[in-house]
From TrEMBL:
It holds the Pfam family Macro. InterPro entries: Macro_dom, Macro_dom-like. It comes from the Bacteria. This is O-acetyl-ADP-ribose deacetylase. Residues 1-168 form the Macro domain. The gene is ymdB. Coiled coil: none annotated. PANTHER family: GANGLIOSIDE INDUCED DIFFERENTIATION ASSOCIATED PROTEIN 2-RELATED, MACRO DOMAIN-CONTAINING PROTEIN.
Amino acid sequence: MVEVHLGDITRLQADVIVNAANRHLAGGGGVDGAVHRAAGPELSQACREIGCCPVGEVRATPAFSLSAKRIYHTVGPVWRGGNLGEPELLSSCYRQCLSLARREGMGSIAFPAISCGVYDYPPELAVEIALEQVQDHLDRGSPPFEILFCCFDEAMAVLYRQQLEPLVRR
Protein backbone atom coordinates (compact mmCIF):
# COMPACT_ATOMS: atom_id res chain seq x y z
CA MET A 1 0.00 0.00 0.00
CA VAL A 2 1.28 3.44 -0.96
CA GLU A 3 -0.39 6.56 0.44
CA VAL A 4 0.12 10.30 0.14
CA HIS A 5 -0.34 12.48 3.21
CA LEU A 6 -0.28 16.23 3.63
CA GLY A 7 1.19 17.60 6.84
CA ASP A 8 3.83 17.02 9.47
CA ILE A 9 5.82 13.80 9.00
CA THR A 10 6.62 13.66 12.71
CA ARG A 11 2.94 13.08 13.47
CA LEU A 12 2.47 10.10 11.14
CA GLN A 13 1.99 6.62 12.54
CA ALA A 14 4.78 4.61 10.91
CA ASP A 15 7.51 2.28 12.11
CA VAL A 16 10.11 4.45 10.37
CA ILE A 17 10.19 8.19 9.77
CA VAL A 18 12.73 9.20 7.12
CA ASN A 19 14.56 12.43 7.80
CA ALA A 20 15.86 14.49 4.88
CA ALA A 21 19.12 15.19 6.69
CA ASN A 22 22.28 17.15 5.99
CA ARG A 23 25.66 15.41 5.82
CA HIS A 24 26.55 16.33 9.38
CA LEU A 25 23.21 15.05 10.78
CA ALA A 26 23.13 18.34 12.65
CA GLY A 27 19.50 19.28 12.35
CA GLY A 28 18.56 22.35 10.40
CA GLY A 29 15.51 23.70 8.67
CA GLY A 30 12.58 22.03 6.96
CA VAL A 31 11.95 18.35 7.62
CA ASP A 32 15.32 17.94 9.35
CA GLY A 33 14.59 20.66 11.88
CA ALA A 34 11.05 19.38 12.49
CA VAL A 35 12.31 15.83 13.11
CA HIS A 36 15.00 17.02 15.52
CA ARG A 37 12.56 19.22 17.45
CA ALA A 38 9.90 16.51 17.70
CA ALA A 39 12.31 13.70 18.63
CA GLY A 40 13.92 15.68 21.43
CA PRO A 41 17.50 16.50 22.44
CA GLU A 42 18.55 12.85 22.58
CA LEU A 43 18.41 12.75 18.78
CA SER A 44 21.09 15.42 18.45
CA GLN A 45 23.37 13.44 20.77
CA ALA A 46 22.77 10.21 18.81
CA CYS A 47 23.54 12.01 15.55
CA ARG A 48 26.75 13.50 16.97
CA GLU A 49 27.85 9.98 17.91
CA ILE A 50 27.24 8.76 14.34
CA GLY A 51 29.16 11.69 12.88
CA CYS A 52 28.18 12.16 9.27
CA CYS A 53 26.33 10.53 6.41
CA PRO A 54 27.45 10.72 2.79
CA VAL A 55 24.99 11.82 0.10
CA GLY A 56 22.84 8.90 -1.06
CA GLU A 57 23.33 6.86 2.11
CA VAL A 58 21.31 6.28 5.28
CA ARG A 59 22.01 6.19 9.00
CA ALA A 60 19.51 5.02 11.63
CA THR A 61 18.75 6.21 15.15
CA PRO A 62 16.05 5.46 17.70
CA ALA A 63 12.98 7.68 17.32
CA PHE A 64 13.16 8.98 20.91
CA SER A 65 10.03 11.14 21.51
CA LEU A 66 8.38 10.26 18.17
CA SER A 67 5.78 7.49 17.98
CA ALA A 68 7.90 5.73 15.32
CA LYS A 69 10.39 2.99 16.19
CA ARG A 70 13.26 4.40 14.13
CA ILE A 71 14.42 7.50 12.28
CA TYR A 72 16.35 6.93 9.07
CA HIS A 73 18.51 9.91 8.17
CA THR A 74 19.28 10.11 4.48
CA VAL A 75 21.13 12.84 2.65
CA GLY A 76 19.74 13.73 -0.74
CA PRO A 77 21.72 15.45 -3.47
CA VAL A 78 21.72 19.17 -4.14
CA TRP A 79 20.34 19.77 -7.65
CA ARG A 80 23.06 21.07 -9.96
CA GLY A 81 21.39 20.41 -13.29
CA GLY A 82 21.13 16.62 -13.22
CA ASN A 83 24.44 15.74 -14.84
CA LEU A 84 26.45 15.20 -11.65
CA GLY A 85 24.81 11.95 -10.55
CA GLU A 86 21.87 13.56 -8.78
CA PRO A 87 19.27 11.03 -10.05
CA GLU A 88 21.42 8.07 -9.00
CA LEU A 89 22.09 9.57 -5.58
CA LEU A 90 18.42 10.33 -4.96
CA SER A 91 17.48 6.81 -6.07
CA SER A 92 20.04 5.47 -3.64
CA CYS A 93 18.42 7.36 -0.75
CA TYR A 94 15.11 5.57 -1.32
CA ARG A 95 16.69 2.16 -2.06
CA GLN A 96 18.89 2.24 1.01
CA CYS A 97 16.04 3.30 3.31
CA LEU A 98 13.75 0.57 1.97
CA SER A 99 16.50 -2.03 2.20
CA LEU A 100 17.31 -1.10 5.80
CA ALA A 101 13.61 -1.19 6.73
CA ARG A 102 13.37 -4.68 5.23
CA ARG A 103 16.46 -5.88 7.12
CA GLU A 104 15.15 -4.41 10.37
CA GLY A 105 11.70 -5.98 9.87
CA MET A 106 9.80 -2.69 9.73
CA GLY A 107 6.25 -2.80 8.41
CA SER A 108 5.78 0.85 7.46
CA ILE A 109 7.93 3.76 6.40
CA ALA A 110 7.15 7.46 5.86
CA PHE A 111 9.19 9.51 3.40
CA PRO A 112 9.37 13.28 2.95
CA ALA A 113 10.07 14.73 -0.50
CA ILE A 114 13.83 14.21 -0.25
CA SER A 115 15.93 17.03 -1.78
CA CYS A 116 12.87 19.06 -2.82
CA GLY A 117 13.33 21.85 -0.28
CA VAL A 118 16.50 23.89 -0.02
CA TYR A 119 18.37 21.32 -2.17
CA ASP A 120 16.26 22.50 -5.15
CA TYR A 121 15.62 19.11 -6.78
CA PRO A 122 12.86 19.61 -9.37
CA PRO A 123 9.76 18.14 -7.69
CA GLU A 124 8.43 16.35 -10.80
CA LEU A 125 11.73 14.53 -11.28
CA ALA A 126 12.13 13.74 -7.59
CA VAL A 127 8.63 12.28 -7.32
CA GLU A 128 9.24 10.12 -10.38
CA ILE A 129 12.42 8.71 -8.82
CA ALA A 130 10.74 8.13 -5.45
CA LEU A 131 7.84 6.23 -6.99
CA GLU A 132 10.15 4.20 -9.26
CA GLN A 133 12.18 3.04 -6.29
CA VAL A 134 9.09 2.23 -4.23
CA GLN A 135 7.50 0.32 -7.11
CA ASP A 136 10.70 -1.68 -7.66
CA HIS A 137 10.73 -2.50 -3.95
CA LEU A 138 7.08 -3.57 -3.88
CA ASP A 139 7.51 -5.65 -7.04
CA ARG A 140 10.07 -7.75 -5.14
CA GLY A 141 7.41 -8.53 -2.53
CA SER A 142 9.43 -7.66 0.54
CA PRO A 143 8.50 -5.51 3.54
CA PRO A 144 7.84 -2.76 4.36
CA PHE A 145 4.51 -3.03 2.56
CA GLU A 146 3.06 0.25 3.85
CA ILE A 147 4.81 3.23 2.31
CA LEU A 148 3.73 6.77 3.07
CA PHE A 149 4.77 9.93 1.28
CA CYS A 150 4.33 12.96 3.51
CA CYS A 151 4.12 16.26 1.67
CA PHE A 152 4.66 19.71 3.10
CA ASP A 153 2.19 21.39 0.74
CA GLU A 154 -0.77 20.57 -1.47
CA ALA A 155 1.17 21.13 -4.72
CA MET A 156 3.64 18.38 -3.78
CA ALA A 157 0.83 16.04 -2.71
CA VAL A 158 -0.86 16.57 -6.08
CA LEU A 159 2.37 15.61 -7.89
CA TYR A 160 2.63 12.38 -5.91
CA ARG A 161 -1.05 11.53 -6.46
CA GLN A 162 -0.84 12.21 -10.21
CA GLN A 163 2.27 10.09 -10.69
CA LEU A 164 0.99 7.38 -8.34
CA GLU A 165 -2.33 6.93 -10.13
CA PRO A 166 -0.98 4.91 -13.11
CA LEU A 167 0.96 2.63 -10.75
CA VAL A 168 -2.16 1.85 -8.72
CA ARG A 169 -3.97 0.67 -11.87
CA ARG A 170 -1.24 -1.84 -12.83
